[in-house]
Amino acid sequence: MRNWWWLALAGLLAGCGGTNAGGGSAPATGESAEFPVGIVTDVAGIGDLSFNMMAWDGLQRAGRELGAAPTKIESQQVGDYENNLQRLAEKGCKVVIGVGYALEPAVKNIAPRYPNTHFVLIDAAGPQAPNVTGVVFHEEEGAFLAGALAGGMSKSGKLGFVGGQEIPLIKKFEAGYRAGIKTTNPGATVFAKYTNTWEDVAKGKELALSLFGQGADVVFHASGRCGVGVIDAARMKGPGFWAIGVDADQDYLGTADPEHPEPPSRVLTSMMKRVDNVVFAICQEAKAGAVKSGVRELGVKDGGIGLSPLKFTKSEIPASLLQRVEALKTEVAEGKVKPPKTLEDLETWKAPVMPK
């Protein structure tokens, strides 16, 4: 079988400029160095084709539209985080993005040393400092919508979830997903497995195949690069089986040829977390001298969380189900439906009554 995920990654890297020996990406020839900005990924790197990739996409957009000079450093291990942040600050980056909750201790240590650099921490509040912005998302809201769609599409009444590290952040995804399924398919059974890593594609595929083997016909992942394996498992199983992507629009990865995607796709939808937009917005503010510190919370209401456009699967989804999911989206945005953030909250959570 073709290693299509690496082909997709190679295509992405080809448009990113050169990569230096330290793992960072050098600005493309001709880019202005007047407004240097940088990103430090977590260990999954932009090869996750989701979370880290979205942040890098936002930084590259800042390069195109703001004249910024973007640089990336892909961390190889947790111990690299602090040094990588420092490297970008020493390089003179005006904005340094740390992607992932795991970089919070490193940002806390490095930010006070470089008061003229604005640090942004994705998926954590970060330290209270005048040069730090933390960005957190209401993942449970998007996972809830994904679960509602998955529950309505399931024929077996069995669904799966593959998480990465078994931490509160990923439990938010699982809780929201289960709540969505409970709303549209209250009698369904949900199985969950965790890879305990972000990088192991083979492990993601193994767990997804195990869930499909237990009877699940839809598997949602929130597992970094492992999710590429989850999607490959759905492609291997074929019609009647679905994966659900995360963070980026991963729908194209479920098609027969992801380099030239055409319907159908084995990715039903993707729960998108618009890290790209918030990274670009903060760079824009920083260039204007108007960036603010503190914590930003983003959810369905402000477009920070949502489902993919269903470019490859909409024709296979009943119109009545699409309408139900859209109605739930409106209720979440208006605060009428509040999906649970933990599995403990899910136990007492009451699903909204849906019209017949």
Question: Care to give the gist of this entry?
Answer:
The protein has 356 residues and is of the alpha/beta class.
Compile the SSE list and pairings.
Elements: H1 4-14, E1 36-41, H2 51-66, E2 69-74, H3 81-90, E3 95-99, H4 104-110, E4 118-122, E5 132-137, H5 139-153, E6 158-163, H6 168-184, E7 189-194, H7 201-213, E8 218-222, H8 226-237, E9 242-247, E10 267-273, H9 275-287, E11 294-298, E12 305-307, H10 319-333, H11 343-348
Parallel strand pairs: 1-2, 1-3, 3-4, 4-5, 5-11, 6-7, 6-8, 8-9, 9-10
Antiparallel strand pairs: 10-12
Helix pairs in contact: 2-9, 3-4, 5-6, 5-10, 7-8
Domain count: the total is 2
CATH superfamily heading of the largest domain:
Response regulator
Principal-axes geometry comes out as globular
Q: Provide the CATH architecture of the largest domain.
A: 3-Layer(aba) Sandwich
Taking the sheet with the most strands, its summary is: 6 strands, parallel
Query: Class by helix and strand content?
Result: alpha/beta
Strand content: 15-25%
If you had to describe this structure to a student in words, what would you say it looks like?
By secondary structure, this protein is an alpha/beta fold. It folds into 2 domains: 9-137 and 275-298, Response regulator (Rossmann fold); 139-272 and 318-348, Rossmann fold (3-Layer(aba) Sandwich). It has helices spanning 4-14, 51-66, 81-90, 104-110, 139-153, 168-184, 201-213, 226-237, 275-287, 319-333, 343-348, and strands at 36-41, 69-74, 95-99, 118-122, 132-137, 158-163, 189-194, 218-222, 242-247, 267-273, 294-298, 305-307. The strands form 2 sheets. Strands 2-1-3-4-5-11 form a 6-stranded parallel β-sheet, sandwiched between helices. Strands 7-6-8-9-10-12 form a 6-stranded mixed β-sheet, with helices on both faces. The protein starts with a helix and ends in an 8-residue tail after the last helix. The model is unreliable at 1-32 (pLDDT under 50).
